[in-house]
Amino acid sequence: MAQSNCTQVTQFSLTGFTEDPVTQLNLFLLFLLTYLVTIMGNLGIIILIRASPHLHSPMYYFLSNLAFVDLCSSTIITPKMLVDLMSEKKSIAYAGCGAQVFLFDFLGVSESFLLVSMAYDRYVAICHPLLYPLVMSPKCCFQLVTGSYLMGLTNGVGQTISMSTLSFCSSSTIDLFFCDISPLISLSTSDTTLSHIILTTAASLFGVSCILVILLSYVAIIATILSINSAEGKRKAFSTCTSHLTTVGILYGASFFMYLFPRSHSSRAADKWAVVIYTMVTPMLNPLIYSLRNEEVKEALRRLLKIK
Fold first, then answer.
1. Rounded Cα gap, residues 110 and 170, in angstroms
2. Residue 61: what pLDDT?
3. Burial of 232 (0-12, 13-18, 19+ CB in 10 A)
4. 159 and 100 in contact (C-beta within 8 Å)?
5. Which of 231, 232, 277, 229 is nearest to 253 (CA)?
6. How far apart are CA 109 and CA 206, in angstroms?
7. How far apart are CA 163 and CA 194, in angstroms?
8. Which of 152, 188, 193, 207 could form a disulfide with 109 if both were Cys (CB 3.0 to 4.6 A apart)?
9. In which order are the strands placed within the sheet that holds 11-14?
10. What is residue 2's predicted lDDT score, i.e. its pLDDT?
11. 124-127, Cβ contacts within 8 angstroms, sequence gap of 24 or more
């Protein structure tokens, strides 16, 4: 009966980080700087790869798409959060919340599969270098990137359908700074069985499969590197993987903390900062990691600056 008298909410309230004005201002400046660096870094990577012919290779094709995804994923969350930090009322319309759920889950899974594609690229380059031009053809690269976006689209649609089945009567306050499907499921007053099934299935099919492929790729890569006789050869082979490994470690480390560790009232602040790392810090660091640790990218930047 209570469920039949439920009035569906038209907007959600977001708790954000703190109510202290000084802390909010400091966080606003910190996150604004992070967002600006993210925009400039990822746009810079995309422009640099497009403008540099010697970067027109599979690895940098995947990297430009990764930069595009990072740019979009940061943009769907950070600007709204910056506005909320300067606003007394932190809220988001139901439709806007649904859009955030769709885009966040679409881009998150797309990024995971792009990282898988990059791991496969490194596997073929190191373990089967003679077959690399044949295996990593432009057609194959296009199919891998398209498949990554299709997997992300599948996840985004699934999580949006999951949200549409939920009812919110007793509370409309999300203990986070943006809309994510997990806190929405916890907030719902309706039967969440379908939502849990969709969430668990997506995590198993997309998350676990991506991690397994990356792990298996690097097991083969490390075995091949160890079989190289010269120390210089080992160093060069491993140097092509360090940027990717760093990105994978940061992304999955933060996501594991977000979704796998048990929640408690005392850990909510830590949870939010893990989400910050996942949604804002990682997109900012990725272009820096790939530019600072990659000689080809640095050389392309030097050439581009000389041209200008």
1. 34
2. 93
3. exposed
4. no
5. 277
6. 7
7. 10
8. 152
9. 91-93, 11-14, 173-174
10. 44
11. 125/59, 125/240, 126/221, 126/224, 126/225, 126/237, 126/240, 126/241, 127/220, 127/221, 127/224
Block means of pLDDT (10 residues each) for the chain, 308 residues, are 60 81 90 94 90 85 93 92 86 90 93 93 91 93 96 92 82 82 83 83 84 91 85 76 80 67 53 80 84 70 66
Residues in the chain: 308
Q: Which amino acid is at 146?
A: T
Structure-block tokens of residue 80: 């709204």
The predicted structure's pLDDT at residue 185 = 86
Main-chain dihedrals φ then ψ at residue 169, nearest 5 degrees: -115, -50
Report the amino acid identity of residue 170.
S
Q: What is the pTM of this model?
A: 0.88
> Residue with structure tokens 């430009």?
64
Secondary structure string (H, E, C) spanning the chain: CCCCCCCCCCEEEECCCCCCHHHHHHHHHHHHHHHHHHHHHHHHHHHHHHHCHHHCCHHHHHHHHHHHHHHHHHHCCHHHHHHHHCCCCCEEEHHHHHHHHHHHHHHHHHHHHHHHHHHHHHHHHHHCHHHHHHHCCHHHHHHHHHHHHHHHHHHHHHHHHHHHCCCCCCCCEECCCCCCHHHHHHHCCCCCHHHHHHHHHHHHHHHHHHHHHHHHHHHHHHHHHHCCCCHHHHHHHHHHHHHHHHHHHHHHHHHHHHHCCCCCHHHHHHHHHHHHHHHHHHHHHHHHHHHHCCHHHHHHHHHHHHHC
Torsion on CA atoms 140, 295, 247, 158, rounded to nearest 10: -30
Q: Which residues of 127-136 are buried (b: 16+ CB within 10 A; e: fewer)?
A: beeeebeeeb
